[in-house]
Amino acid sequence: MKRSFFCSILVLFLTISCKNDREENHALEVLEQVQNTFAPDKRVALFDVSLEDGILTGETNLEEAHRVLLEKLKAADISFTDSIQLLPAPELGDTNLALVTNSVANIRSEPRHASELATQALMGTPLKVLKSSGSWYLVQTPDGYLSWVDAAAIVRMNQSSLDQWMEKEKVVITEMIANIYTDETLHEIVSDVTAGNVLELTGISQLGYQVALPDSRKGFIPIENAVPYEQWKSTRNTEDNALIQTAKLMMGSPYLWGGTSPKGMDCSGFTKTIYFLNGMVIPRDASQQINEGELVDTDKNWENLEVGDLLFFGVPATAENKERVVHVGMWIGDNQFIHSRGRVRISSFDPNDENFDEYELNRYLRTKRIRNKPSEHILSVDQILQ
Fold first, then answer.
1. 66 is known as an active-site residue
2. Which of 14, 45, 100, 154: disulfide with 39, CB 3.0–4.6 Å?
């Protein structure tokens, strides 16, 4: 009798255990499906969620992904406890937005100055603030990039304050590197600025513009270094001459890993800056940019390329390994492209040209055209500043 009883208990235990294992495995499959659907690229989507002992933990800024995950688990009759933290974090209150108030904000992969530089954002760029860690904030840029910024580089605000700032008259810096001064004497500097910085316009004189920075500092900038925003916006275009002239203004600028400004830029930061200064916001990294636009070439048929086309370089896919996209440049015609490698430079695919670049020729992958190719991942500057 006792042996029969213990056997029954053992069978019941094993049955429950197998059911729990199947349920947990199914739950993990659902979790993976949702993550692959909503957050395939961790650089632009935060879905750090795990399941253990029937408890969902972690965090996400994707409200829809969270909702779909719960719905799928309930539909599969899987029992669970939801302890996922939805971002922005509640402790931020309603000040979960921000404006960059330094000429260039360095945005890092971890909340410390010694961490890798992930990207940059220019003065006047609106950001979403997701959570804090000490004096650092996890933010999301208009192109979706997620990384950490020091509190000193931004001013936090609520939606109402940001809307008010958006409605004010503004100026855009056009000089690659310039200064804001306390007054027209130009004796004392308030801040440095770079091309693409956006400031509130508070007054105009024959000599320049009275401006206010996003953190309410005030100053003056000479008239040759900026233009009113509406005028700047109406003159932005991606015609051949505009792209080439903008790119060449940065000739010799130093390579900076994570840089996306005239102060220093990596390869994709350079192409991003060229297009931004001509009114287009394109994805941050080369491995993201290559997914946009129309395929133009894969066989080194340079006659098919147009000014503004993006050339991608790297390691082709093999049976064992995926393709690796490691570099990008912009075609400027006459068998030449401009890119940031060591510094901003012009290279050629003509063996007789003094700038012949055999190194890049040997790792060429393909060319994409993004001009006049609509995409949900390519915005106009006006879309982020209205």
1. no
2. 45
